[in-house]
Amino acid sequence: MKELDLLKKDWQKNTDSFEQVSEIEIYKMIHKKSSSIVKWILIISILEVLLWTALSLFFNSDDYLKQLHHEELISYLKLLTYFNYGVILTFIYLFYKNYVRISTTASTKQLMQDILKTRKTVQFYVWYNLGMIVLSFIIGFIIAFSYSPEIGSLREKIFNDTKVMAIIFGVLFLTIAVFFGAFWLFYRVLYGILLRRLYANYKELKKIDL
User: Fold this and answer.
1) Using CA atoms, how far apart are residues 71 and 141, in angstroms rounded to an integer?
2) First to last CA, the chain
3) With a threshold of 0.85, does the pTM exceed it?
4) Contact 16, 201 (CB under 8 A)
5) How many structural domains comprise the chain?
6) Which residue windows are transmembrane per the record (predicted)?
7) Which DSSP symbol is given to 91?
8) For the chain (length 210 residues), average pLDDT per consecutive 10?
9) Which of 84, 114, 87 is CA-nearest to residue 98?
10) How far is the C-alpha of 64 from the C-alpha of 97, rounded, in Å?
11) Residue 23 lies in domain
């Protein structure tokens, strides 16, 4: 924001006859920066999908379920996967729409509204991904606990011993909490910096619009 600060100082030094020109220049600079930020949000979300898709190729759950002789679960997991990709692609489409809208808008008020809308969309996207991560861990635990032969010998003991059951569920909760915190921090760094810059632009536009 150094260029913007310098421009604002210059604006304050100039006479009233230059006020309108300076305001337009500040708007153009904020507009350009906002468009660039939303473009990076779009690019990062696409790269993120490609990364998770590449990683999923190395962890084939279908083969694991076939080993457990529970192929009927494969179709359910595939439906969940298709649903997840459908939602994520919808978010990416919304990011693209936000980018086009912010890039083409010529109104200060409209740009402010688009910035707030983009921030909300990104926040919903992050919380959706965090929710899916938790759901994936729970589903994975239930499948392993219910069908894995390695755990089968311990299953009866776990159900008959409330202390062991409490320890098992405590470890599960702690594992989910650790991974949830790690991914939350990942998204905080990945998208948080861009969202803070976007909101800073919003506050600058609010000063102009007063």
Assistant:
1) 17
2) 20
3) no
4) no
5) 1
6) 37-59, 79-96, 125-147, 167-187
7) H
8) 54 50 76 92 92 78 65 78 92 94 85 91 94 88 74 67 78 88 90 91 80
9) 114
10) 39
11) 2-209
